[in-house]
Amino acid sequence: MEGGKQVPVGQGLFTWPSDEPRLIGTHCKSCGDYFFPKTFTCHNPKCKEKQIEEVTLSRKGKLWSYSILYYPPPPPFVAPDPFVPIPIVEVEIPEGLKIIGMTEDCDPKDLRFGMEMELVVGKLYTDKTGNDMIGWKFRPVR
Amino acid sequence: MKEVAILGVGLHAWGKFPEKSWTQMLVETAKEALKDAGVEWTDIQALVASSQLWGGRKGIYAGNYFAEAMGETGMSIINVNNACATAGSVMSVACMTILSGAADLVMAAGADKSPKGFFPSIPVYHEEPLPSVDTIRWNMGFPNPVFWALECQKRMDRYGVTETHLAKVKVAMSKHGALNPKARYRKQFTIEEVLNSAMVADPLRLYEICATSDGAGTVVLASMEKARQYTTKPIIVAASSVASGVYGDPTARIPSLGIMPKPGVPIISESYVAAKTAYEQAGIGPEDIDFIELPDNSSWHPLQYLETMGFCKEGESHHLFDEDAVLIGGRLPVCPSGGFSSFGEATTAQGFVQVYELVQQLRGQAGARQVKGANVGIAEVYGAAANNAALVLKT
């Protein structure tokens, strides 16, 4: 939008701007678990050594679940205006993490459990002040 | 071994009461509970109260402002907040107060008023390096029903649950709510009416998601020794447990955006652990339970909770709704109170609906809602941040 800034939906969540944006998470080198959003420590209670490192996460995964929100949630939730129902998905990535996110180019009729999805980063909506809110989205791999 | 008894209960009707402060609502229920118990306010030795999120400063120190209205006596006051599991957690702290010997006559009390529209943000005033996941999900527009819907969709794919089953859950709850004068919604729904209601977060429809309400409830508890001075028929607290989430829980828990499941960790682990602990404390199993109060925030919840609380095998709960087993008169009555579905949710006061119902049932005073031969009942209530409380009461 003219004159508007691009604002990420939160700090430290994804690499951006980037030719191939990825989600930023953490990985524990000791127990092997992954965390998103990134954490300052390993959250595994059985992990004694806790060696956390920042990592970028796989871009492709499989559809684990989905929903479609049909009404714009009121404040403090933010939603595009006019509101268009689009699928919200839970995607399993190879790290074992399941990521919840918006979708792009995703027709509800095409949703199938296990289908391949890939991550993009782009505009979620334009907010009231004219800024573009930037966030992660999944789209079907075609 | 020391035991805890319930002497009296009071419950305000659930609904919207803009003309009354929550303090006034709570004082009314306290008077009802004290009269029920045959106890004076000045006999109460300790107060455990629900601390609210939406009521500002007065809501946080709810117990103190309530005690001010009842008359300050210098008693111990603990304000508790465990999200929507608060009332059950308040009960647990009240029991522990008695079991420790610190007091033998305790009041558990909770009131809450839901804000207009949706739950607002809880402001953060101190500096944090990164935004909370809650803030991020607000910015992405993911309200609570989305998370329940994600779980519900999985259930439908894995176990053959249909949208008709989701509607049947609402219909069953509404049949019970119609019989409860304290319930806010008393209309009996048909499957068609529910399926014709607007889709909110696929697959959950408007009538399949509970509303939000104002409510208040009070319980008078005593050591068994003390209780026998007041009654020959105390209701016995067989178990009062609190539990939290286990690492590796596969549930899309509000407001998570990244879930790291680990093998063998049960879904809604906080509820699984609290129920298991309650059965162990009470020395019983699910087969000994005569009726259940569970947190039916949406049609998904009873389907999951019946399995988590051990009443049927994984993936089979929807059959109980096909058989009408869950109705009063059936073999496993679920939410004879009418549930959150019929009351709407009053967050930190909600669990008191369940306690009130358990007591009425066990006393044989539930009227049209009476479960025949009700001798043991269980209530589970869960809340944000993986909190859960379970209560088993018996005659």
Question: Terminal Cα separation of chain A, in Å?
Answer: 29 Å
Structural class of chain B, please?
alpha/beta
Helical proportion of chain B, percent range: 25-40%
**What is the level-2 CATH architecture name of the domain at 4-115 and 214-225 in chain B?**
3-Layer(aba) Sandwich
- What's the helix-strand series of chain A? EEEEEEEEE
Given the C-alpha coordinates, what overall shape of chain B results? globular
Q: What does the radius of gyration of chain B come to?
A: 20 Å
Q: How would you name the oligomeric state of the polypeptide chains in this document? A: heterodimer
Reported by name, the CATH topology of the domain at 58-140 in chain A is: OB fold (Dihydrolipoamide Acetyltransferase, E2P)
Low-confidence stretches of chain B: none
Beta-strand percent range of chain B: 15-25%
Task: Bin the strand percentage of chain A.
Answer: 35-45%
Q: How would you explain this protein's 3D organization?
A:
The complex is a heterodimer of chains A (142) and B (395). By secondary structure, chain A is mostly beta strands. Chain A has a domain at 58-140: OB fold (Dihydrolipoamide Acetyltransferase, E2P). The two termini of chain A are 29 Å apart. Helices cover 0% and strands 39% of the residues of chain A. Chain A is globular and about 50 Å long. The mean pLDDT of chain A is 93. Chain A is built from no helices and 9 strands. Chain B is α/β, with parallel strands linked by helices. Chain B has a domain at 4-115 and 214-225: Peroxisomal Thiolase, Chain A, domain 1. Chain B has 14 helices and 12 strands. Chain B has helices at 22-37, 56-60, 62-70, 86-99, 133-140, 144-159, 163-177, 191-196, 224-227, 269-282, 300-308, 317-322, 339-343, 351-363, and strands spanning 4-11, 46-50, 76-80, 105-112, 199-201, 204-205, 215-223, 235-244, 258-259, 291-293, 376-383, 387-394. Chain B is globular, with a radius of gyration of 20 Å. Chains A and B meet through strand 3, strand 5 and strand 7 of A and helix 5, helix 6, strand 5 and strand 9 of B.
